[in-house]
């Protein structure tokens, strides 16, 4: 049974009680259905960890320092209207770069 938007706003608590009892409510605007209120399905129980063991992997060199070419691509200069401008770096970015250079 469709309910118009005004009625849904006015009687939301009542509609939620009906939904809680298992009823599905359709909200309509100008006679056209636009939304459904449906009960939330109960959770299936606690999640079991470790189900994707052989599906996900990390490369052995995952945490290895990046090559200089890649680092330079991130911190390179760029040309804007014929003028070379240096990217403005935050102090955090500058610290990260210094830490990478120390390695």
pLDDT < 50 stretches: none
Helix content: 25-40%
Q: How do the helices and strands follow one another from N- to C-terminus?
A: EHHEEHEEH
Radius of gyration: 28 Å
Describe the model.
The protein has helices spanning 5-10, 12-20, 68-74, 91-102, and strands spanning 2-4, 25-29, 32-37, 78-80, 83-85. By secondary structure, it is of the alpha+beta class. Among the domains are: 2-37; 68-102, no CATH class. A three-stranded mixed beta sheet has the order 1-2-3. A two-stranded antiparallel sheet has the order 4-5. β4 and β5 form a beta hairpin. The longest helix has 12 residues, at 91-102.
Question: Which key terms come to mind for this protein?
Answer:
two-stranded antiparallel sheet; 103 residues; alpha+beta; 3-stranded mixed beta sheet; 33% helix
């Amino acid at each position: 049974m469709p309910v118009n938007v005004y009625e849904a706003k006015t009687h939301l608590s009542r509609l939620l009680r009906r939904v809680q009892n298992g009823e599905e409510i359709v909200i309509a605007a100008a006679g056209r259905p636009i939304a459904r209120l449906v009960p939330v399905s109960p959770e299936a129980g606690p999640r079991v960890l470790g189900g994707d063991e052989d599906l996900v992997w990390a490369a052995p060199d995952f945490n290895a320092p990046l090559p200089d070419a890649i680092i330079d691509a991130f911190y390179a200069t760029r040309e804007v209207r014929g003028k070379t401008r240096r990217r403005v770096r935050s102090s955090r970015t500058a610290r990260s770069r210094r830490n990478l250079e120390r390695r």
